[in-house]
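Reopening: structure tokens for the 2'-deoxycytidine-5'-monophosphate complex, inputs below.
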Amino acid sequence: MPRRRSTEPAYFAAVNAITIAIDGYSSCGKSTLAKQLAAHLGYTYIDSGAMYRAVALFVMENGLAPGGTLDRAGLLRALDGIDIRFQHDPMTGHSATWLNGRNVEQEIRGMAVSQHVTLVSPVPEVRAKLVRLQQELGAGKGVVMDGRDIGTVVFPDAEVKLFMTARPEVRAERRYQELLQKGIDADRESVIANIAQRDLDDTTRAADPLRKADDAIVIDNSDISAEEQFRRALEAVADVLARVGHE
Ligand code: DC
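Re-run output (same inputs, fresh job):
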């Protein structure tokens, strides 16, 4: 087993797997970084936001958000029957989100779901269910999970915690371009408004609000390239492994 600190994949393969928690605001590139890290380290990437999006889709499809207001009692009654899992999609080569036996990966990325997700994400019972599922998925370590409460609630003992941020206008433009690229219909003003609303909702909700864990490393990527961001994150992982990876 190598003793030398390195950022090469072979080094990571030889040391004990750790947990990497990535939190931060909407649309600041958490999933891009998480996927890069997971691929480099040979870890599993888990998108916790996809789970909240799947619950939002369930609510929309089952008439539980009439007029944009959540039927909370209805959701709580239905909660046990909501099955969310991830499955490898051979068509795309990536993991896809499944809701009650159906691949919903495309649908959960649209604006309608983005607009409904903050109806369900503050509900403590929804959070408890999804946090439990996330903890089960990450129990074996060797995972990179991104979200809002991963370093604070889901894996407070994660060896590496990253907290990502970027200026709101930078994030809105990125999200807008991403939606256009995916062929999803969107207008810039509603993307900006949605990001502002989700920032507010994520940081002010009573249950598990978005906040930086005390031991998280902050990465503001407003003015740095994706390569530079990846380099910094990998350095942070290598530092931790040099301390704990050889036990
Ligand atoms: O990361 P995302 O934008 O796909 O997340 C969708 C929504 O889910 C977001 O508005 C906040 C919520 N979320 C959450 O409350 N906790 C998480 N761990 C992940 C996402």
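The longest strand covers residues 19-24. The mean pLDDT is 93. Marking as resolved unless the reporter disagrees.
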